[in-house]
Amino acid sequence: MARSSGNRVLHALRSLAANPRKILIYMNSAHLLNPLPDEVFLRLLWKARFGTDLNLEQPETFNEKMQWLKLHDRDPLHTVMADKYAVKAYVSPLIGEEHVIPTLGVWDDPDDIEFSALPERFVLKCNHTSGEGLILCKDRSRLDRGKAVRELKRAMKDDYYLTYREWPYRDIPRKVIAEPYMEDRQAAESGLDTLPVYKILCFEGEPRIIQTIQNDKTDHESIDYFDPEWKLLPFHQNYPNSAVPTARPRRLSEMLETARTLSAGFHFLRVDLYEINGEIYFSEFTFFSDAGFAPFEPEDWNRILGSWIRLP
Question: Is the pLDDT of residue 149 over 90?
Answer without folding.
Answer: yes
